[in-house]
Amino acid sequence: MNEPEIQQLAQQLHASRLARTAQQKLTAAHPDLSLPDAYAIMRAGVALRRAAGETPVGYKMGLTSQAKREQMDIDSPCYGTLTDAMLVHSGETFSVAAGIHPRIEPEIAFRTSRPLRGKVTREEVLDACDGVCAALEIIDSRYEGFKYFSLNDVVADNSSSAFFVLAAGWEPVQGRDYPELHMRMSIDGAVHQEARASAISGDPVLSVVQLVEMLDVDGLELPAGSIVLAGAATVAEPLSPGREYTLEVDGMAPVTVRAS
Ligand code: OOG
Ligand code: MG
């Protein structure tokens, strides 16, 4: 795919997001769209957001759990770019009308204090992180129906990134048994989704290892000060006005958002 085509498809997705209208998946008109094309479209889309005044603040890993892969019918992980305009603080109200058909899912967020590049170990990731917290990702798809699209479509659409909610403060990274952490997402006080954090890539720290490897393939590093969402532990739930969503993770402050 050539540069003008990549720019044009990034523009299309950008416009759909701003207009809050779903569009046809890109592979319907471009069945030959490759995974490198998809990441190029994603990056062109991020450049459009930068031009509009947004600043990238990190990345989200997607499709790192079996539950999500089955829900979306896609079998490999992907990443997307997070910007400052996507950040929602715990306790805030989020308007569902800000998206097309937003959903919410339970995650764990890490913050790096040193850059990471190439092949890294889980210990190197933990050493390079200075904070962890419970997070809710509000995903949205710019495609009709939200389902039955391909990995390449999702990646081009910034891996369905829309908004993310972080708990009130960053907490110490060391001394936690990450795979064993229990995660519980409630809606209006009733538990709807729960899983061990091992549902996320076997260990949410390994999601960060994998992200660093995927960025390296594209010649990129994970900069210091990045926020990384490790991926959802369970399927996503639709976001409905009037309901309150809370995620509790063992040993961490809860994160909550009310939909309006
Ligand atoms: C793709 C994004 C997946 C996750 O945590 O697995 C994701 C999608 O579900 O539309 O964010
Ligand atoms: Mg997610």
What count of helical segments does DSSP give? 7
Report the principal-axis shape. Answer: globular
Bound molecules: 2-oxoadipic acid, magnesium ion
Which structural category fits the helices and strands? alpha+beta
State the major sheet.
8 strands, mixed
Mean pLDDT: 97
Which regions have little confidence, pLDDT < 50, spanning 5+ residues?
none
Strand content: 25-35%
**Beginning-to-end CA distance, first to last residue:** 40 Å
The number of E-state strands comes to: 13
Assembly state of the chains shown = single chain
**Radius of gyration, Cα only, in angstroms?**
17 Å
Give helix % range. 25-40%
| Helix-strand pattern | HHHEHEEEEHEHEEEHEEEE
Molecular structure report:
The protein is globular. The model has no long low-confidence stretch (mean pLDDT 97). The termini are far apart. With 260 residues, the chain is an alpha+beta fold. Strands 1, 2, 3, 5, 6, 7, 10 and 11 form an eight-stranded mixed β-sheet that branches. A five-stranded mixed β-sheet has the order 4-13-12-8-9, with no helix packed on it. The chain contains seven helices and 13 strands. Magnesium ion binds next to strand 1, strand 5 and strand 6.
